Protein 1
Amino acid sequence: MSTVAVSRVPARLARFVLHMFRPWVYATYGLLWTLALESSAVSLTGTPWRPAAATWVRVVSVILALLFLRMLDEQKDLAYDRVHHPDRPLVTGAITAAELRGGMAALTAAVTGLNAALSSAAVLLILSALGYALLLAALEHLSAALRDRQLLDLAVTCPVQVLLGAYVYGSLAAAGTVAADWRGGVLLALCVCVLLHYEFARKTAWETPPGARLYSAGLGPRRSAVVTAAFAAGAVGCQIVLFLPDGPAGLLPCLAAVLPAWGLRRFLRARRGGWPLPAATGFVAGTHLALVVRAVMLP
């Protein structure tokens, strides 16, 4: 590769990030998700929570990990995108696989350096999430079942998010900020349920366009909608288990459940189109924001 070509790589990666990662979306999600998880974990110990320098290390690490996953997905979905998304940057040549791998290496070095300032446990936890994602990509390359069966693929993909949550919670435990107990597992389950609600919502529709990878294509629209709503209900159940001892004020995040309830009603009555995504997006943002507000409000 020529010196001129090398000098263009940062600009090409920047355009990829703006086009495919949309920082205003993913960075906002990473910020709210990390703050919600950390603040809830700390507040459950009875200790007032306020963000510290380590908080922002975790926030930046999660956002960079999400970018790593987006770059990896772009490569492992190349064959599918050539047919169904011919405008994607890797298909059009706006970016190359080698450039994406270089970006992933730089991100790995960045999160390693950031978390070295926290603890060796934090480094191992964040790298385990990235390592599992790489292993999963290799398995999908070898297994047609993983590539073609949506629910099976989701089952093996979901642990990546669990590992990222374990990184946030585990780094808090390693720092002595929280004492790991059963509530950590419920808190991680809460976050996973919120994420899976959105994942199912965006892939649930009455009609399936040719080649579309929708959960409703295999489950049927009604069952897919019920599963979508069930994940929201699961998140609310986790909140009740964790926060009911704090009284009515502790259940503030449960108010966001009105959005998936409205989304389910609208989807079933419409009998066409997809799940109303503003309801799903609002539930994700509203739940995480309410968790942070709850933690800040507690004495």
Protein 2
Amino acid sequence: MQPISNRPGFRQMGVRRFGKVNWLGLYTLSRREIMRFMSVWQQTIFAPLMTSALFVIVFALALGRSRGEVMGLPYLAFLGPGILMMTVIQNAFANTSSSIISAKMQGNIVDTLMPPLSPAEIMAGYLIGAVARALIVAAAIALGMALVIGQGLAHPLWALGFVVLGALLMGGLGLLAGIVAQKFDQMAAITNFIVTPLSFLSGTFYSVEALPGPFRMLAHWNPIFYLIDGARYGFAGVSDAPALRGLMVCGLAVALVLFTAWRWLATGYRMKA
């Protein structure tokens, strides 16, 4: 009798049956990540919008008309794109990091690791959720800016490109943070002492040209500065650094972060026993 392994159509265990990409698995993971934040939209979508609005209101009331122009723009028009990008990167980071750390703490990370998904597909599924959340938040804030302060889009494609790059960069960093952290306290420390200071101190509320020489030089080595500066170029048409340079720096940073995330997922670093 012919062995089962030699019969036509037989596949060894562990052989992928989905081609080069498991599109069904990728769709399922992406849908899960999107539904996860949409099911609590009051916290994941509405709360960031309220925070952004409060920033604008506080600065408008505190400074009033006493604040002169910055880079040739009224201060609120200068501030708006920075607030938008700051909110985008914080939400992209929170989406992937909270998903990973919650699954690890609740013990259901195996539900993501066991299905026939490659490391690249797992990473892509999480990033699609982060980008979707970032785009929804960015669109809502952009609409508010247009209605309240009349802020339009000087370069729409540049604005979209930097928003997507920001979501990919911080979504990737969120993956790394979620993998490294072993409990919620460690994740809170990463958020409070790394992500929040970097987003606040990267030209969100001021032009980096106002900084002393050494600090200005350090700012130009910070990819988040280029994200905020690029968003300002896309919305207002002005920037501290050339937009093309910012695009290249952000692209390289995204490639480095995503390669590291892929490598950690491929090796099971802090994910598998």
